[in-house]
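Work package 3, deliverable 3.1, input record:
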Amino acid sequence: MTLTMGKPLRFAFGEAIAELGHHNDRIVVMDGDLGSSTGADIFEKAHPDRFFQMGIAEQNLFGAAAGMASVGLIPFVSTFACFAVARALDSVRVLIAQPEMNVKITGGYAGLLAGMTGKTHLMFDDVAIMRALGHMVVVAPADEIETRQAVAALVDYEGPAYIRLTRPATPILFGDDYQFQLGKVTTVRKGSDVTVFSTGVHTTRVFEAAEQLAGEGIDVHLVHVPTIKPLDVEGIIAAAEKTGLVVTAEEHTIIGGLGGAVSETLGEHRPTLMKRLGLADTFGESGPDDALLEKYGISVSQTADDIKAFVDSQAR
Amino acid sequence: MSGSTLATTPDVDELRDLARQGRAHIIRSIATAHGGHLGGPLSAIDMLVALYFRVLKVRPEEPDWPDRDRFILSKGHSSIALYTALALRGYFPVDELTTFDAIDSRLQGHPDMTSTPGVDMSSGSLGLGFSGGLGIALGAKHLGKDFKTYVMLGDGECNEGIVWEAAHVAPRYQLDNLVAIIDHNKLQQFGWHGESLAERLPPYTGTELVDRWSAFGWEVLEMDGHDMESILETMAKSDKTNGQPKAIIAHTVKGKGVSYMENDFTWHSRVPTDDELATAMRELGEESR
């Protein structure tokens, strides 16, 4: 089964926040001079009086967002994930996370696929870093449907949050009847041989890998984890118990992201043999999307092969 | 409606005495805590007393009053001076100052807006408080609120890049509701050395700070940060809606008020001995308690 191609999450975010802005005048968008890339320009067109250009200065972008939140506004701060997480980390940590400011950090161009930009911009350790910050909620939606709902949920949620948004067009995984719940996992595909947890847009690739594996006699139980923090501990344990064999898969390094979060949880509550799939302990480089997915080992076919190899190794 | 809760507004002589008492509280608190900073708090305390007793529209009994003027101590390591001004103004008991830096105290080493009544923005990593203040002023303009936001920075703090990131943005949004007060005490913690290693150079000399803030589009005023009349006069001048943010370069002395601390960079953060404490209290017209 092949999924229908949908919009990039960044545009789904832009459309969603512009629409939500019509119903809530506390929503403002603050931009670090990347609005024409991140989808924030859609909000500027709809609400020019609530769009604040802050220039190419990310430390101040996030510090000022804390100030805006302290007077009751709900700032959605828009920049690339690399600048939000790495460059502005001190502002985010001291002025947003610790005092629990109601600031929503939208990390555009997160992950491996950031349009021929290379090591500076490819940010695939963002989840690990943001997850380690006290009070910070971390969300990674899979497709445009879930992105719209997650953005709405973050407007309603009072507190600091990071949402991972990606650049390329992404297949549509969920139907119109899908209901995103902050802090809950969702079962994408029921199976009996191996439980695979995945997050973000990578779930669409893992879904295609699972469909491929069905033809090879491996029945994947696929669970999407859109909220990496707070983690749905009960949901993770229950899904692991379905098969007793766990794989995590993500467009992120295998250090400290979803794989780390699931390992910590199962290690404490239900020790389970696991395989973490994702990027190695490395940095990125320039290249077309397909070539990057292949070279860094997280394409659909490589994911299917890796899951199969792990299942086979346990069957012996 | 006025924000003041005092039955009487202290005159200049009374402000001077409040600052004198404040200095004694600051030094006793650092001695009790066996840690903290002294040079910066002593350069800032006159201005803090003037702000909290005569300038800011605030309600100590309602610290979160939405329309209050905001004050942010961006040079957060001088927190004991802010806590002293807040205590003298009635936000919490003056006796609580002796809990500074103790475990479970509301008075943290660096200001924490989640723990201390009257602290409008956390600070301590230099430059961040100023950036937060910019956001408050921007938000206030957007919401049509007419309260003002005052931020105090150190002159050494002006080394931080984020200060100039924020300074660049304020004039773009015509934030005439934002006042930056730069405590120009001419010493940072360690700084660059002069002729000898014992001599430490000022972070900025001559008109450098005036020139820099002016170049960024701010209206720049100067005052003597230890002269109550100069402080009140300059604060009044800064209160105008002309579309420009205001920077006040406050000429001060690090360690002001205690002879052996003045202009000595080693008193940036140092704990006085019992003898030093007694001398300081004598100089401030107080007996050591």
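The first strand of chain A starts at residue 5 and ends at 8.
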